Structure formats: C-alpha cells, structure tokens
Amino acid sequence: MSKIAIVYHSGYGHTARQAQAVAEGAASIAGSDVLLIQVSEVDRHWDDLAAAEAIIFGAPTYMGSLSAEFKKFMEATSKIWIKQGWKDKLAAGFTNSASMNGDKLSSLTQLVILAAQHSMIWVSLGLLPSNSSKAQRNDANYLGSYLGAMAQSDSDLGPDMVPPAGDLETARLLGARVATLAKQFKAGKA
User: Fold this and answer.
1) In whole angstroms, what is the distance from residue 83 CA to residue 188 CA?
2) N or C: which end of the chain has fewer CB within 10 A?
3) What is the pTM of this model?
C-alpha cells in the first residue's frame, strides 16, 4: 500500500475542491492509501506525513504567491528539513487563483523549492497542454502547466461551480500520476 498525503490550504473552498480532485485521482490507483490534510490540522498529522511515500502540496495563489496559511506550514516543516526527514519522498503540487494567469507559476515554483529543500523528488504534471485551435475550456491542462496542476476559479462563483471541469480533471490526473509513481517507487525500493 502506497501512502499519499495531500497537504493543502483553501481560503474560499475552491482549492479544497481541487485538493479533493487530486485525492480522487490518487485513490483511483489500486493500492493507494490517500489522506487529505488541511494545513490548519497538520499538527495532528506529522506522523502521517513521515509515513507517506508521496506528499502533494496545494494552496491558492494570492497576490502572486502562496497563501500565508500555507507559508506557515512551510515554515513549520523546518524541524523536518534539518533532519532531512522527507528526503527521497515524491512531491508534487497544485494551485488555484481567480485569474487565468494570476502568477500561479510563481506559486508552483515555491512548492518545487520547498520540495528541493527537503531533498524530495518532484513529480511534474506529465500532460501536454490543450493549446490547439480546437481546445475547449474544459479540456485537461487547458491552462498549459508542466510543473503542477493549475486551476482558475472566478472570484464571484462558489466552489460548487468552479474550478471548471477541465481543471478538476487536470487535478485528478496529477493525483493518479503521483500515486502510480509512488507505487512503482515503493516496489523498486523493495
């Protein structure tokens, strides 16, 4: 059984919906044990994170950066960093903002750096972008990311309406990719 932990912050519910889609994708891979952890509850889950083969990080992009609540979690991981407690675990990430761009790449880059500081192995999205003239807004990876899953949620709509189906499918595909690789990684270690 591969353990996949998804640690996330969501200010308005949109990123929580994206996190749920990541979890659904990871759970779709046989032999995956998936745990969703809100950063506000992380103090009860440090042991779960230590036991996970993969940790997927997620947060909204506010003002061109990860949310402050997620940054608090990042700083709290320094006790793990100093001992390199997450070394060689798989890592991946996702983010959401109201704008189509919203500087989401900056947030994903922050997550990659967090993983690198912990000596983790980053898993990219692994999808080509939907960038042909026939592309539709609900296609997977319509926002054209490579580093992780991006979603866009109109700020005047609730999480019951956004992110769009294609962005949620992108999140599911990221979760499935990480779970597949975690399974292969664990088998290879054995």
Assistant:
1) 24
2) C
3) 0.96
